[in-house]
Specification:
By secondary structure, the protein is an all-alpha fold. The protein has one domain. A hairpin with an 8-residue loop joins β1 and β2. The model has no long low-confidence stretch (mean pLDDT 90).
C-alpha cells in the first residue's frame, strides 16, 4: 500500500492489515500486533495522564470545567457500578471507571480520518491500524482480564473449596452422578462470558471501521461521489458517537455484572 492502492480491495486490505511481527519462528499465535500494542499504550497514557493531572489539581471550591467533567464522569460510573455490585470490594468502582475510559478512548480512535492517519503512519511503518478495539486481540485481552478477576472474586468470597463445590453441585444438585453435568454447564457458562464480552465489542467497532472505509471509497468516483460520500461519512460519524459510547458503557457494565455474579452463593 506504500505505493498507493489501485483497487477497492487493495484500499480496504491495506487499511485492515496489522503491523504484525512474529515472536517465534512458527508465527501464527505467537505474533504481536505492534500497532495495537503501541496505540493502546499511547492512548491509555494520554487518557489516564489527563485524569491524573485533573485529580492532582482538584480543588475543594468551585470546580473548573475539566474538574467538573471528571467529577460528573466519576459520579456517573460509580453510581452505575454500585447499583449492581453490593459486595465489599473497593476495587470495582475504580475498575469500572478505568475500563470505561480506556475502552471509550480506544473506540474513539475510529473517528480519526483513516487516509490522513495512513499518510502519517506510513512514514515509519508499512501498515498501521489505529483502532485497537477493532483488533480481536485487544478485546480478548480486556475480557480475559475481567474473567480472571471474576474467578479471583469468586474464590475470595466462597473460598477455594466452596468455589469448587459450587462448580460440581450447581445447577442440578449435589448427587455425585450429576457432578459431570454440573461441571460441564459451569465450564460452558464461564467460557461463554469472555467470548461474548470480547466479540460484542470487537464486532461493533470492526463493523464501524469497515463502514468508514467503504464510505471513503466514494471519493474515488469523482466530485459527486466525494460530496455524497462526505455527507454519508458525516452522518455515520455522528451516529458512531453513540455506538462508541454505548459499547464502552456495555463493556464496563458487563464487567461489573460478572464480578457481582462471581460473589453470589448458589
Amino acid at each position: 500500500m506504500a505505493a498507493g492502492p489501485t483497487t477497492p480491495t487493495e484500499y480496504i486490505t491495506g487499511h485492515l492489515t496489522h503491523l504484525a511481527r512474529p515472536v517465534a519462528e512458527a508465527g501464527g499465535f505467537w505474533t504481536v500486533h505492534w500497532d495495537t500494542v503501541i496505540t493502546t499504550l499511547v492512548v491509555g497514557t494520554i487518557a489516564f495522564g489527563f485524569l491524573w493531572l485533573v485529580v492532582r489539581g482538584a480543588t475543594a471550591g468551585v470546580p473548573g470545567k475539566r474538574q467538573a467533567v471528571v467529577e460528573l464522569l466519576v459520579d456517573f460510573v460509580q453510581g452505575q457500578a454500585m447499583s449492581i455490585y453490593h459486595g465489599a470490594s473497593k476495587l470495582v468502582a475504580p475498575l469500572a471507571l478505568s475500563t470505561f475510559v480506556l475502552v471509550f478512548m480506544l473506540n474513539s480512535m475510529d473517528f480519526l480520518p483513516v487516509d490522513v492517519m495512513a499518510k502519517f503512519t506510513h512514514t515509519f511503518a508499512p501498515h498501521w491500524r489505529i483502532v485497537p478495539t477493532a483488533d480481536v486481540n485487544t478485546t480478548f485481552a480486556l475480557a480475559l482480564s475481567i474473567f480472571f478477576l471474576m474467578i479471583a472474586f469468586a474464590i475470595r468470597a466462597k473460598g477455594l473449596g466452596g468455589w469448587i463445590h459450587e462448580l460440581l453441585t450447581t445447577p442440578f444438585g449435589k448427587f455425585p452422578l450429576l457432578w459431570p453435568a454440573n461441571l460441564l454447564m459451569n465450564v460452558v457458562e464461564y467460557l461463554s462470558k469472555p467470548l461474548s464480552h470480547s466479540l460484542r465489542l470487537y464486532g461493533n467497532i470492526y463493523a464501524g471501521e469497515i463502514i468508514f472505509l467503504l464510505l471513503g471509497l466514494w471519493a474515488a468516483t469523482g466530485l459527486a461521489g466525494t460530496i455524497f460520500g462526505g455527507v454519508l461519512h458525516l452522518g455515520w460519524a455522528i451516529f458512531h458517537i453513540l455506538i462508541v459510547t454505548l459499547q464502552a458503557f456495555i463493556f464496563m457494565m458487563l464487567a461489573v455484572v460478572y464480578l457481582s455474579m462471581a460473589e453470589e452463593h448458589h
